[in-house]
């Protein structure tokens, strides 16, 4: 650009810095920012906002605050978006008092907060168990003629439901509807989860049926109710709901499978649990460490009652190796000998493959020699 006699200006630099930050290349963005200032080009609100957003995404909140202070020192007034980015990041990181201080600075500098600002603060206060303060902020928000939206109400409803205060959550839903804000799938999922937490499974089912009628039920909704049925030991209804998902074109995720697998083991149906695990793997759902733990606990409980399925063990070992849990895989492999079982070739292949992937060639070769014996 410069070779053609056209010097980049603040707009040019800001555009590239913004693009770099969006690609999480924040180091490169900061380097370019430094080059820009060395050339005597003054940054503007867009430049600083992009950088603040970038460092916040990387979890560097203190650097974000430093950039904000530097911005103010340069007499560049942060706008509502700049403040919102920083307040939201601080709240998500549990730094609510710093977020509130930033909010106060925002007011002092004459920048009007919007619904996004209040939502971030209310969410932060709820996460840090300051529910009364969150309600006070809601009142302040309404007093400032800023209408709460569906996100505002959902934050409060979800918090109340997680505390088991479902009747209070219902009152918020009534206020929500009175203000012309329609409950959405998030609202109903939170309410259903609250009922399940309180073991009011019939009420949870009514919410679910309403969602089905309104055609807004999603995978999370199914998973919540399946979990509720499992906790209430109504395993047949949980299984029926799981089967219904595929008929409606919904693909169960890892959490859905894990919930039902755990429920099957607890209901004394280890064979069903193992079949679900195999179905999970065959449908491309990668089990996580929670699922692995559930399977190991379940298999340990049933080892004296049923002949172990070595395909399950090899799948577990293979999955653990894939997520870097090689020590857990080795421990599971060794546990087979401890309970008097001789692993088959599939189990040996799984553990040796995992050891090779981790560069533990000596251990893999030792197992190979043991296998030949």
From TrEMBL:
Alphabetized UniProt keyword annotations:
Repeat
A Pfam family assignment: PPR_2
User: Cross-referenced InterPro entries, in alphabetical order?
Assistant: PPR_P_subfamily, PPR_rpt, TPR-like_helical_dom_sf
PPR repeat ranges are 9-43, 44-78, 79-113, 114-148, 149-183, 184-214, 218-252, 253-287, 309-343, 344-373
Supply the PROSITE patterns for this chain.
Answer: PPR
Gene3D superfamilies according to UniProt: Tetratricopeptide repeat domain
The Swiss-Prot or TrEMBL record describes its family as follows: Belongs to the PPR family. P subfamily.
Question: Which protein are we looking at?
Answer: Pentacotripeptide-repeat region of PRORP domain-containing protein
Whose protein is this, by species?
Answer: Manihot esculenta
């Amino acid at each position: 650009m410069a070779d053609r006699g056209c010097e980049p200006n603040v707009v040019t630099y800001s555009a590239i810095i913004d693009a770099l930050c969006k690609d999480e290349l924040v180091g490169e963005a900061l380097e370019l920012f430094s080059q820009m200032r060395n050339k005597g080009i003054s940054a503007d609100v867009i430049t600083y906002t992009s950088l603040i957003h970038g460092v916040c995404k990387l979890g560097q909140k203190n650097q974000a605050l430093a950039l904000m202070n530097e911005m103010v020192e340069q007499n560049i007034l942060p706008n509502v978006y700049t403040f919102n980015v920083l307040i939201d990041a601080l709240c998500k990181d549990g730094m609510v008092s710093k977020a509130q201080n930033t909010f106060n600075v925002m007011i002092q500098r004459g920048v009007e907060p919007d619904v996004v600002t209040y939502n971030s603060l209310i969410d932060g206060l709820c996460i840090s168990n300051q529910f009364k303060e969150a309600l006070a902020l809601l009142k302040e928000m309404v007093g400032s003629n800023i209408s709460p939206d569906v996100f505002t109400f959902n934050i409060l409803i979800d918090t109340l439901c997680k505390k088991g205060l479902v009747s209070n959550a219902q009152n918020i839903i009534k206020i929500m509807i009175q203000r012309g804000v329609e409950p959405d799938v998030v609202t109903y999922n939170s309410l259903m989860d609250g009922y399940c937490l309180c073991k009011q499974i019939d009420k949870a089912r009514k919410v679910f049926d309403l969602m089905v009628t309104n055609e807004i039920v999603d995978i999370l909704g199914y998973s919540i109710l399946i979990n509720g049925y499992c906790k209430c030991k109504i395993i047949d209804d949980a299984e029926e709901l799981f089967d219904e998902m595929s008929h409606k074109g919904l693909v169960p995720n890892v959490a859905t499978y894990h919930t039902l697998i755990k429920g099957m083991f607890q209901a004394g149906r280890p064979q069903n649990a193992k079949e679900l695990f195999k179905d999970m793997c065959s449908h491309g759902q990668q089990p996580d460490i929670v699922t692995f733990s559930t399977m190991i606990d379940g298999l340990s409980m049933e080892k004296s009652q049923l002949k172990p399925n070595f395909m399950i063990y090899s799948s577990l070992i293979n999955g653990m190796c894939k997520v870097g849990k090689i020590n857990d895989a080795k421990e599971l492999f060794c546990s087979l000998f401890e309970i008097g079982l001789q692993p088959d070739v599939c189990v040996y292949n799984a553990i040796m493959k995992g050891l090779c992937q981790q560069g533990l060639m000596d251990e893999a070769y030792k197992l190979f020699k043991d296998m030949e014996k």
